[in-house]
Amino acid sequence: MTEAPKVGFVSLGCPKALVDSERILTQLRMDGYEISPDYAGADVVVVNTCGFIDSAKAESLDAIGEALEANGRVIVTGCMGVDEAEIRALHPRVLAVTGPQQYEAVVGEVHRHAPPPAVHDPYIDLVPPQGIKLTPRHYAYLKISEGCNHHCTFCIIPSMRGKLVSRPAGDVLGEAERLVAAGVKELLVISQDTSAYGVDLKYKLDFWDGRPIRTRMKELCAALGSLGAWVRLHYVYPYPHVDEIIPMMADGLILPYLDVPFQHGSPRVLQRMKRPAAAENTLERISRWREICPDLTIRSTFIVGFPGETDEDFDVLLDFLQQAQLDRVGCFTYSPVNGARANDLDGAVPEEIKEERWHRFMQVQAQISRARLRGKVGTTQQVLVDEIGDEAAIARSKADAPEIDGVVLIRDGEHLAPGSLVEVIVEDSDDYDLTARLAG
Ligand code: SF4
Predict the structure, then answer these.
(1) What confidence score (pLDDT) does residue 79 get?
(2) Is 148 near ligand 1, meaning CB less than 6 Å away?
(3) What is the CA radius of gyration of the chain?
(4) Looking at ligand 1, which residue's alpha carbon is closest to its atom 1?
């Protein structure tokens, strides 16, 4: 693997500027950068300035000069950034100047001058490839752990990223709180295995705002739900304790959305994949979850054509799909990953059969998704506006994660601002998306 580029960071000024700095640093970390503790080891240095009073300005200009001298590659942001001419008059060599709260702009400049790790690796990265582009400021990925204790035969993450290492709950919640304070409306909880959160720390008692909190999925979800933002859970395996989370979804504390990578419906294939929670009776669990939380959206991913998958296994999978009635589904044909143990399994499925199964799978699921979306026509939904297009606002409902699910087009929403939460009435649907108009 190529080494991650390093960013040096100097943060000056008030608590608001600090929140901005943390928002920028969070984004840079998500984009694969490392934060350098010193100027010398950094590929580029960001100086978040303060321009409140003259002495603060002088301090900011000094800090820029110091970073230029020690490193030479400096990007300026923050309050003083509104006066680019003043900065350039003294320090003409700065690479770029951006203003306060311009997270996207400053991170964009870092990308330009020290490009992020070039390739998105679909086998190891948590964020979808499009996630490499900057997330708009109203949603943010919140990584709660790194690595994984499982040994799925098609996966190389444990050998690349190591065993599960959870971040203590106080740490995660501190970051979440700062993100919400900086304007984030939706927190996307990610990890390789969200249900295993805290196992490595033996659910250690941590502290958040002086209060004790266990480093465990249930407690973390409850605390995140208290922050007033949408909280969406990704990469959840259906262990029994996930049942405890569903009532929080029914109560509106966290979004009624579960991203569960089932990967297959045939127990025989799941065993060959060595999937976690493969022995659980998944269909029964799903129907119990829906009894508790009827609005629950379940998204999942599947692999067809895994070595040894027979026609019968595939029929079991299609039957699973029909019964599970999942809302959002992605499907991949199996392809060997360098270093994965599945490469040694016998029973490779010929490419044309993989393709044929993929098409049949997608047809079945498209019908299911279409029917489930049609059921939403006429309902009122709360949606989060992502951007304003030529003829409509592009938003997402609680059932849609950014980048991977569908969207809600608001026909009369051109005047809305990205990041706003509004109520809409759904008027139409297709296989993936909804069309709506503003309610009231
Ligand atoms: S649970 Fe399986 S697929 Fe997911 S990261 Fe761990 S080993 Fe890989």
Answers:
(1) 84
(2) yes
(3) 24
(4) 150
User: 152 in ligand 1 pocket by Cβ < 6 Å?
Assistant: yes
**Of the candidates 280, 222, 230, 285, which has an alpha carbon nearest to the alpha carbon of residue 256?**
230
361 closest CA partner among 318, 332, 308: 318
Q: How far is the CA of 134 from the centre of ligand 1 (A)?
A: 26
pTM (2 d.p.): 0.76
DSSP letter for each residue of 349-401 = PPHHHHHHHHHHHHHHHHHHHHHHHHTTTT-EEEEEEEEE-SSSEEEEETT--
Of 254, 144, 258, 150, nearest to 206 by C-alpha is 144
Residue 303 Cβ < 6 Å to ligand 1: no
The CB density around residue 339, as the number of other CB atoms within 10 Å, is 11
Residue 193 Cβ < 6 Å to ligand 1: yes
Question: Is 308 touching ligand 1 by the criterion CB < 6 Å?
Answer: no
Is the separation of the CB atoms in 190 and 127 below 8 Å?
A: yes
Best mutation site among 121, 143, 145, 152 for ligand 1 pocket (most ligand atoms within 8 Å of CB)? 152
Q: How far is the CA of 303 from the centre of ligand 1 (A)?
A: 13
Pairing assessment for the beta strands 139-143 and 145-146 based on DSSP bridges? unpaired
- Residue 133 confidence (pLDDT): 36
> Per-10-residue mean pLDDT for the chain, 440 residues long?
81 71 79 83 92 78 94 92 89 92 85 78 53 60 87 83 90 89 89 93 94 96 97 92 96 97 94 80 93 96 96 97 95 85 91 96 95 96 93 95 92 93 97 93
Q: Which of 49, 51, 46 is nearest to 27 (CA)?
A: 46
Residue 157 Cβ < 6 Å to ligand 1:
yes
- Complete DSSP assignment for 44-83: EEEEEE--SSHHHHHHHHHHHHHHHHHTS-EEEEEGGGG-
State residue 410's pLDDT score.
Answer: 97
Task: Report whether residue 155 contacts ligand 1, using a CB cutoff of 6 Å.
Answer: yes
Cα–Cα dist 77/222, whole Å: 35
Number of other residues whose CB lies within 10 A of the CB of residue 25: 20
Of ligand 1's atoms, which has the minimum distance to the CA of residue 235?
4
